Amino acid sequence: MADSGAYRVNEPKVVSETLDGETIAIDLESGSYFSMNPAASVVWNLILAGYPSAAFAGVVAAHFDVAAEDAASDIATFVETLVRDRLVIAAEPTAAAETPPAGVEARLPYASPSVERFDDMQELLLADPIHDVTLAGWPHLPPS
Q1: Record's InterPro entries (predicted)?
Q2: Of the candidates 50, 34, 52, 30, which has an alpha carbon nearest to the alpha carbon of residue 113?
């Protein structure tokens, strides 16, 4: 597929949830989990909704105290990280991508979109909770 300027979350391999402006995504194949800051969460949710990448900077600028032009390179770097970690893949924009969401009244302080990767819980996230446990039950894994 040619680069359409849009992405989609690499589901069902990747699941996510956004709470209080922070997004957590889990790669169910690798057991890694990812934490995204508020600006990254805005971009992530635009990807979930099927918006083209051309809309990302404008929407981030509407939510945060930053000019769209200044946010654009930060967003491009962030999206490259998501692609490299195979959390998102290239896709066609959906019909929902025609009208980006409106801005908010009070713009928040801006920090570049960022994502942190954590591998410290891979063993638990990849464990089979039915078969890979001791008699004590979940989450007690047998010794490796």
Answers
A1: PQQD, PqqD_sf
A2: 34
DSSP the chain: ----SEEEE-TTTEEEEEETTEEEEEETTT--EEEE-HHHHHHHHHHHHT-BGGGHHHHHHHHBSS-HHHHHHHHHHHHHHHHHTTSEEEE---GGGGSPPP--SSPBPP----EEEE-TTHHHHHS-TTTS--TT-TT-PPP-
Q: Distance of alpha carbon 108 from its chain centroid, rounded?
A: 20
What is the pLDDT at residue 81?
A: 97
Phi, psi of 24 (to 5 degrees): -115, 130
> Which residues of the chain fall below pLDDT 70?
1-4, 95-105, 122, 124-135, 137-142, 144
